[in-house]
Every structure is written in C-alpha cells, then in structure tokens.
Write a structure and sequence with these properties.
Shape: globular
Bound molecules: adenosine-5'-diphosphate, magnesium ion
CATH topology of the largest domain: Rossmann fold
CATH class of the largest domain: Alpha Beta
Number of strands: 21
Low-confidence stretches: 624-634
Number of helices: 25
Helix content: 40-55%
Strand order of the largest sheet: 11-12-10-13-14-9-15
Length: about 700
C-alpha cells in the first residue's frame, strides 16, 4: 500500500481549487491525472521580467517591465479595431493595444493620470512602441505582486499559461516532507538539495540555463527517478530469480533432428547464442535473456532449437509474436522442422474462437501441444499450459514491461527469452531491461549481399517506375511502402489504394495491396499471393514492417521515406536482401525535407549496421521514439532523460545493486525511505515483489 504521507500528492487534479472538469481534462492531457504528475511536470521555459528599461531604451521583441503614467484612452471607432491606451515615462510614449476589450474594465485598470507598472512584450512598429495585452498591470506599490521570473509549462490547445502555472503551484504545495532516501554523503558530494527543495528550485527558473538537465536540482530529481527505476527492475528480477527455475536438460536429440532438416548450416554467432541459452536453461536459475540480432540475422531458428530442448525435457514452450501475420509466418516456417523433430505445434491468436479455440486450450492443458505460437492472446486468463518450460517473446519492442512480467508469472516459473530486432543502444538497455542477460547475433547468414540503398526525390518518380518495370519484367518482386499516419488513417489508406491503381496502370501488372485495415484473412491472401509470385508488386502500409519473410523479394520502395524513423526504415529495408539475389532499397522523399529527415536518409545510405543506426536514431530523436514510449521508459520517466542523464543512470544502476545487496527487503531506515521513493514514482508493483511488503 502506498504510504499515507503520499496520499495528498496522489489526489486527482480536480481537488485543486480553481480546477473544474474542463481544466482537469486539459491538464491531465499534458501532465497526467494526479497532483504528483503536475509536480513532476517541469517547466520547459522561463519568462524573465527582470528587464526594466526606460521606454526610449527598451529593446523590441523581448519581455520588459516598465513604469509609466497613463496619458489617455482611445476607444475604437469600429468594433473590430483594437482599443488603445497611451502611456509614457519621461523618455517616450507607448501604445497599449487591446483586442475585444471592455472599456469599463480598462478604465479601471488604467486610470488616466495614474502611475502603473506594466509587464509584457514590447514591440516597435516604425518608430512607435507598442505592448499588446500586457501580462501584468499593477500600481507601483504592488510590484511585488507578480513574479519577476515565471516558469513556462508545456500546454495544449485550450490550456493557457496562467491556470496551468497556478495548478502546478497548487500541486507543489501538496508535496510532503519525506524522509531522505539518498545517502547523505552522496548528496553532500554532489551538492544536491533535499527532494522537495530541488523540486521547488526546478520549478522556479530565473534564466534559460536553469532549464538545463545539468542543473543540480534537475540532476537530483532525475537521479531519484532513475534510482526508483533501477531499484524496481532489480526487485522484480530478484524475485523472478528468487522463485527458482528448474534445470531443463536435454540431450539435443530433437534439436539434431531439426538441424538435419535445415537447408543451411547455423552460423557461429547463432551457435554461440544457442549455447548461452542452453546453458541458462540447464541451470537452477531462471533464465531472463535478451536475444538481440538485426533483422534477418536468424533469431527465430535459434529460438526454435531452444524450444525443442524444453520439449525434449517433457515441458512445453511458447512463442509470442506481436502480430497475427507474424504468428502465421512463424507457424509456416517452423512447421517443417517441427515435423522433422516430431513436435506438435499449436496456434492461438485473436482469430481462434469458439470450438477451435476450446480444443486448442484443452490440448494445451493436456500437454498435447508442445509448442504454442501466438499473439498476446497467449496472455488470456484461460490459457493454461500443462507445464510451460520456456517462453519466447519475439520482436519485443511491441510489448511493454508489464506484458513481459505477465507471461513470466504464468504457472510455474518458465525460462524467458526475449528476442528483439531493434538493436538497443546501451544507455536504453539499462532502463528498459535492467539486468537482463544479453546474447547477440552479429552479422547475417552467409550468402547475403548487402542491400544497395538509394535516396531519391519524388520528382524522379517516373525514372523509378521505368526502372521498376524493367526489373519486374525480368521477374523481380518488389514492395512499395506507403506511410500510415495514425491521425489520418483513412487518407493514407486511400493513398495506398490510389498508388496501387497508379502502379497497376503504369506497369500493366498484377499489383497487390495490403494494409492494417484489411481483415486478417484478406491480408494473408495478399501476402500469400505475393509470396507465390502471383503478384509481383505489393503495395503496403507499414504492416509489413515486422518480420515478414519473402526471400524472393529484392526491391523495396519506401515512399515518403522522410516520414519514417530510422529504426522503421531499417526494419523495412531488412525485408529485402534475404535471398541470394542482389537487392535494392529506394527511399523516396517528398518536399519539405527537414534537416533531421535528411540526416536519417543519409545514415540509411551510409550503413546497414543496426547498432550504428540505433545509436544514430537515439541521437536524432531521443529515447521515446526509438523504442516506443513505454519501453524506453520515457512514459515512466517524468524528470529523467535516459540520454541526457546517462551518467546518472549508470550510477543509479550501481547504487541500486548495492542497496539490494545490503538490504534486500528494504527494511533499514533508508530502505523504508526508498520504499516511499518507489511509490512516489509509481513503482508500486516493485514494492509488491518485496518478500515482506
Ligand atoms: P530474424 O528473426 O532474426 O529477423 P529469421 O530467423 O526470420 O531472422 O531469419 C531470416 C531468414 O534467414 C529466414 O529465411 C531463415 O530461414 C534464414 N536463415 C536463418 N539462419 C540462417 C543461416 N544460418 N544460413 C542461412 N539462412 C538462414
Ligand atoms: Mg524475426
């Protein structure tokens, strides 16, 4: 249970005075639903009102605070025009401009002949000074009533600065005095304030430089958050490790049968990864291993061979993939080897329903299915294995941490192998996976030629189509990818359909179409036709991104390549170059081409090393977009930035290990305080894993 001391901070935003349902919704959209979310929503800018020039010397374009006398009011002659008020100090005259203003209100605010202090943005038109809608208008003796420095928060349409700032202030007032969870000597060495003080400081910037991730206050807060993250990952892992796994022994008999049926020899990196996995499985400890390997590096077959080990030991295995399409593909490609080893495969996705599904579940419970392949439907309550020994999660970046945990906690502790084709930059691996063991498959299966990548403006579409026609006439198979932008799915689908029509006409060929809005069966049919060569060109939205395997395809055209992220482009390009023939990837860009997009396309042209691309992606885009918000931890991090605070992350990682080594149940006084820290950052789940909650 969350400690009582934190209750006020975890109240809903609407409990703040002045926040009604409408405002609550807007604030929740930018910050989150709880006061804690608001308190952790650090400013993104600062308005500095400390510039106090005489009017004649005032620099235009900036925020200034000036003291003036009100000269006269000039109400508009027609309503659509602004109401003006002239003011002056001893150096110059300035016009105040108000649109849609009430004369009575302005007369009271700016009485003629009175001194007033104004703060706002000063503009110069020809030689006339203007200030439109001053932010503050007060009598000189009230100057202290407005802040000289104002934090600026992220806003959304309909949400203005003042109510947001006021809500944040309200939330900050609810931050309780909490016991210190950081080591005193460490704080002293870093010259960091206490948590609450640091939070206050971070919300009270005076200059741009106070917004940098390197300020003491922001570092302290980031460190707290990173420590909570690392502690949580360690606790969860310790507990998973704690309920001992069981040694899974196999003589390799089934594996040998499958290997004999392979049309190729396993590469050394594949064999090494498999050996590491088998060693983990044979040990008493439970396996939590990440298998990283570029697209097409041959992870799936490694997973299958590992699963056969579990099956030989009398256990079951599960392979989970993110999409229906991938499940079908795994099923089809693994089938021959499973048959060679006399192993029974089963399949469970959202499409299995009714009696068929019941039969699969019954077989699964009876142990009559050895390897179950499926989508997240595997997580359903009623899915019960007779005895699950190994769970493999494919293309992991589509799943979140919690889903990983769920599968792990099913039945008796199973070994877990997570496979990802998204090469994960080192800094991110720590936040997303904590201490998972990692195996890497480097390089590609032999005989693969690198994919030739060309970057081309859409203006040269005609050239491209001429080229394509020649290649297709010779029997080549090609993908043509149109981007799918979620907000306007309809328009994009129409674009894909239109493109297919256009290409059909231009090429005089069978052109297939595939997109996410099609029924699964239609999609499979489109895919099957392409695989069989009945359609030589497949126009698709990014549904083909993950894992699709048609070795005969040698051309990949990506339209609007400037809209795709690097990881996505890399995945797409990985769809070709899978067979022995030479492949090419054409990245078509449309205007306008921004600097970042240009850099992305250049990277794609220069390298096909997934790890290099991942590091570059991280540099260009930041962690959230590289891995998806949840997995990168960006959704979980409010104040830390795994990239900007990478050094702190490493320290937090070591710190967390030390803490758990000394005080595994978090029972010491510092341990108690650390529990509060975990709750403060919403790591409630981790606290539940403590043996003594
Ligand atoms: P990944 O899942 O890592 O993207 P896959 O396991 O789908 O890659 O493998 C891609 C393709 O390479 C498949 O067609 C597979 O049969 C083939 N393959 C796997 N290992 C080898 C190998 N050692 N030699 C040749 N081809 C291989
Ligand atoms: Mg794969």
């Amino acid at each position: 249970m969350r400690p009582a001391i934190l209750f006020p901070l975890f109240a809903d935003i609407r409990t703040l005075s002045g926040v009604g349902p409408k405002l609550e919704k807007l604030i929740a959209k930018v910050a989150g639903p709880k006061l804690a979310d608001l308190a952790f929503d650090l400013p993104v800018g600062v308005v500095d009102r400390s510039y106090r020039p005489k009017l004649a010397a005032a620099e235009a374009g900036g925020i200034a605070t000036v003291e003036v006398t009100v000269l006269d009011h000039m109400p508009p002659r027609i309503k659509s025009q602004p109401y003006k008020v002239r003011v002056s100090d001893e150096t110059a005259v300035m016009e105040l401009v108000f649109f849609r203003a009430h004369a009575d209100y302005l007369a009271a605010l700016l009485p003629v002949g009175q001194r007033r202090v104004l703060s706002g943005r000063i503009e110069k038109f020809k030689d006339r000074l203007q200030m439109a809608h001053p932010d503050y208008v007060v009598a000189p003796e009230e100057i202290a009533s407005f802040p000289l420095h104002e934090p600026v928060y992220g806003l959304t349409e309909g949400l203005t600065a003042r109510p947001m700032a006021k809500a944040v202030r309200g939330a900050l007032e609810k931050v309780p005095q909490m016991p210190e969870w950081q080591d005193a000597a460490f704080l002293k060495q870093r010259k960091w304030e206490a948590f609450r003080a640091a939070l206050e400081t971070a919300h009270a910037p005076a200059h741009e430089s106070d917004l940098a991730p390197t300020t003491a206050a922001r570092q302290r807060l980031a460190y707290d958050e990173l420590l909570a993250n690392q502690l949580a990952l360690l606790l969860i892992r310790a507990s998973l490790r704690g309920n001992k796994g069981r040694p899974v022994f196999s003589t390799g008999k089934l594996k040998a049968l499958a290997v004999a049926a392979l049309p190729f020899a396993l590469t050394d990196p594949q064999l090494e990864a498999l050996a590491e996995i088998e060693k983990d499985m044979a040990s008493e400890k439970r396996m939590l291993r990440l298998l990283q390997g570029d697209v097409g590096s041959g992870k799936t077959i490694v997973a299958l061979l590992a699963m056969l080990g579990a099956v030989e030991a009398g256990l079951q295995a599960a392979l989970m993939a993110p999409t229906e399409l991938l499940v079908r593909q795994h099923l089809a490609s693994l089938e021959p080897y499973a048959r060679a080893a006399d192993v029974r495969l089963g399949c469970l996705t959202g499409r299995e329903k009714g009696a068929g599904r019941d039969a699969t579940l019954a077989k699964l419970a009876a142990g009559e299915i050895d390897i179950l392949i499926g989508t997240h439907a595997l997580f359903s309550e009623d899915v019960a294995f007779k005895d699950l020994g190994l769970a493999v999660v494919d293309e992991q970046h589509r799943f979140g941490v919690h889903q990983r945990m769920q599968l792990q906690s099913k039945g008796k502790p199973a070994d877990v192998l997570v496979m990802t084709a998204t090469p994960i930059p080192r800094t991110l691996a720590l936040t997303a996976y904590g201490d998972m063991d990692v195996s890497k498959i480097t390089g590609r299966p032999p005989g693969r030629k690198p994919v030739e990548t060309r970057v081309m403006g859409a203006a040269r579409m005609d050239d491209l189509i001429t080229h394509l026609r020649t290649a297709l006439d010779r029997g080549a198979r090609a993908y043509w990818v149109c981007p799918l932008v979620e907000e306007s799915e309809k328009i994009d689908l129409a674009a894909a359909e239109d493109r297919a029509v256009m290409l059909r006409q231009a090429l005089g060929l069978n052109v297939g179409v595939m997109h996410g809005k099609m029924k699964a069966a239609e999609r499979d049919a489109a895919m099957a036709a392409f695989k069989a060569g009945e359609t030589q060109l497949l126009v698709a939205t990014t549904v083909i991104e993950v894992g699709v395997d048609v070795p005969e395809a040698t051309i990949m055209v990506v339209e609007h390549a400037e809209r795709f992220g690097l990881a996505q482009l890399h995945q797409l390009r990985g769809r070709v170059g899978r067979g022995a023939a030479k492949s090419s990837c054409i990245l078509l860009w449309h205007e306008p081409l921004g600097e970042t997009a240009k850099a992305r396309l250049k990277t794609m042209r220069d390298t096909d090393d997934g790890f290099v691309i991942a590091e570059e992606d991280l540099r260009l885009r930041g962690p959230g977009e590289v891995l998806g918000k949840r997995q990168s931890g960006q959704e979980e991090f409010r104040m830390a930035d795994p990239v900007a605070h990478a050094d702190l992350l490493a320290v937090a990682h070591d710190d967390a290990r030390l803490i758990i080594a000394r005080d595994p149940d978090l029972k010491s006084p510092r341990g108690e305080a650390l529990r509060t820290l975990l709750y403060l950052f919403g790591r409630d789940e981790a606290v539940r894993y403590l043996r003594t909650g």
